[in-house]
Amino acid sequence: MHGPVYPASLSMATAGLALNEPSSPALLPELSHLSNEQAALSALGLPTPLLERALQAARAHGTSVEGELIALGQAEEETYYRAVAQQLGLAFLDAIDPDHVRDSAFLDTQLLRPESLRLTPPTRPPIQLIVPRLRDLGSIAAHIEARPSLRAMLAITTPRRLRRAVWQAGAQRRLKKATDSLFDTQPLLSARITFWGQQGFLAGMGTAMLLIALIMAPLATLLAIHLALAFIHLAGFLLRLSAFARMSRDEAASATEPQPAGDHAPRPVYSILVALYREEAVVGQLVAALDRLDWPASRLDIKLLCEADDTPTLAALRALPLGAQYEIVEVPPSLPRTKPKALNYGLEGVRGEFVAVYDAEDRPARGQLEEAWQGFRQAPADVACLQAPIIITNGGESWLSALFALEYAALFRGLLPRLAAAGLPLPLGGTSNHFRTAALRQVGSWDPFNVTEDADLGIRLARYGLRTQILTSPTYEDAPTERDVWIRQRTRWFKGWLQTWLVCMRAPGKLVAQVGWRGFLTLQILMAGLLIAALSHPLLFGFIAYLGLLLSFDLLPGDSVVASALIVVDLCNAFGCYLIQLLLGLRSMRRWERHALGRRWRRLPFYWLIMSYAAWRAIFELRSKPFAWNKTPHRVVQTARREPPVAS
C-alpha cells in the first residue's frame, strides 16, 4: 500500500489559502475590540461582520466560532485548516496513511474529539498531527516561536481526515467488537446460537409428543390444538381491543409536528446513524431529508454507514455536497452482513448525548429531533428510548401498500402508545428510534445476529428496567408495492421475531422477574402470539370450512353443540382480528391516509394469508440461513408524497 509522502522538513503550507481576504502578516494582532477568537480569525482573513455572526451562533449553541463557520458553509474545512497551517508555519497533510497509525483502544477517543494523532512512518521520525482549536492558536504559536525545532515534528490536518485515518487504523478491532461483544459479554441475550441449552431438546420432544398424540388420539388432540389456537387469536384480539378502547378522540390524528419549545438552551450534540447497503438510488433524497431537520448543523453528528465493498453507494455519497456534520463510515465487509452490525460499528464513533436511527428511505419531520430532546429533558432518567411513528405515504399505489399503511397506523399510533403508557415492554420499529447514548451502550447496543434488531433491543431495554415512550412527530416512508419484495421483508421480520422470542425464553423465570407477569404475558402475545396466529391463519379458515361442511350435511357424530361453538369462536376470531385491525388503523389515520386506503381494506383476509406464507418461510429460513438479511430495495419518492399534509 502506497501512503502519502511526508515532507522531510515540515515547511510553510502552500501560500494564498486565506478564506476570504489576504491574511494579515501577524498571527494574533492586538485588536482590543475583538475577542481572542475574532482576532485569530481576522488574522486568517475573515471580515469582522461574519465573525460577529459566527460568534453569536457559537454562544447560542455552546460551540466554537470555527465550528459554526464550517457547519454553516461560511468556510470550507480544508481551506480553513490550510490557512491555520500557513499562519503557524506548519505543514498541512491532506492524506494520512492508516498503516502509520498504531491502533489501541485509546485511539477511539480521537473519533469523539479529533485533536491529535501520532504517525510513525517506517523511514522517518514520528510526526504529531494536530487539529488546533482556535482559542489555542496563540499558545501554539508561542511554543513554536520558543522552540523552532517543533516545525519538523508537527503537522496540521482536518478533523474529517484525522477521524478517517482512525476509523481505518482500528477497523478490525472495532469490527470484532461490533460482531462479538454482546455474545462475549451476555451470551444468553444473543441470537448467535438459535436454540440454547435445552431449547432444542424441548422443541424436538414437544414435536414428537404432538405427533404421538395425533396418532393415539387424533380427535382429542385436534380439539386441544383448535382450542389453543382459538385462545391465542383471542388474546391478540383483546390486546388490540384494549388499545382501541383507550384511544381518545384527540389522539386519532396524533402524528402532527410539535410546537417549538420556545427556550434558548444550548442544544446538545445529536448523533444520527443510517446504515446503507445498495442504496445509491436514494442517498440524495436521504441527505435532503436530513438537511431539513430543525437542529443546528454544528450540533449534528450524522454517520452514513456503508459496507466498504458497496462501491455504488459510496460513489453516490461522495458525489453529494455533504456538510461538515456528515461522516461516511466504511464498515469492513464480514458476516453476518446485517444492519445491526453496521450500527454497532458506527456507535463506536458517536459523539452525541442522544442518538437516532433512520433508514435510507426515511423522511423525518423537521421537528422530530427537537421533540425527542424536549421529551428526554422532561422524562425520568429510566426513559431510555423514544419511538417516532412511521407513516406510509404511498398507500394509494397498491392494495399491499394500502394495507401496510393501515397496519403501521394501528401499530405505531394505536397499539404502541397504549403499551408505553402502561409501562409495558414493546418491540421497537426498525427506524426512528431515539436513544440516550449511555443507556444504549449500557444494554449492549444491537445484536448483530438478530435480523429484527429493533424488536430485540426494545425488549432488552425493558429487561434492564428502562422504558420506551412514543413521540408524535412522524417519519414518512414508502411501503413495498411488489408482492415478492413484501414477502422477503416480512419473512425476515418473522424470522427475527422468532429469534427474539427464543432469546427471551432461554430463562423464562428471569424474564418474569425483570418485566413482571403483565410484561411477560404481553410479550407472549406480541411475539409468539403474532407468529402462531400468522402460521395458523389458513388452518382457521380450514376449520371453519370443514366443520361448516359437516354441520351442513349433518355428518357430525353425536352432539353438534361443540362443533357449532367452535365455528362461532373461529368466526369471531377471524373477523374480530380483521375488524380490530381496521378500526384501530382507521382511528389512527389522518384523512389523506384514509382516502389513500379507500376500500382496499376488504382484502385483509388475503393480506393475512400471504402473511402466513411469509411466516412459514421464516420457519424454514431460521434453520437454513438464520442470519440472512433479505434486502428491501428502495426508490426515490415522488415529490408530491415527500411532505404529506400535517393537519388533515
TrEMBL record:
Q: What is this protein called?
A: Glycosyl transferase
Which GO terms of the molecular function aspect are on file? glycosyltransferase activity
Q: Where does the record say this protein resides?
A: Membrane
Report how it sits in the membrane: Multi-pass membrane protein
Organism's domain of life? Bacteria
Broad class of where this protein is predominantly found: membrane
Keywords, ordered alphabetically: Glycosyltransferase, Membrane, Transferase, Transmembrane, Transmembrane helix
- Glycosyltransferase 2-like domain boundaries: 355-543
Q: Name one GO cellular component term.
A: membrane
Q: What parts of the sequence cross the membrane?
A: 200-217, 223-241, 525-549, 561-584, 604-620
Q: Pfam families in the record, alphabetically?
A: Glyco_trans_2_3 (PF13632)
Family matches, as InterPro entries: Glyco_trans_2-like, Glycosyltr_2/OpgH_subfam, Nucleotide-diphossugar_trans, T2SS_E_N_sf
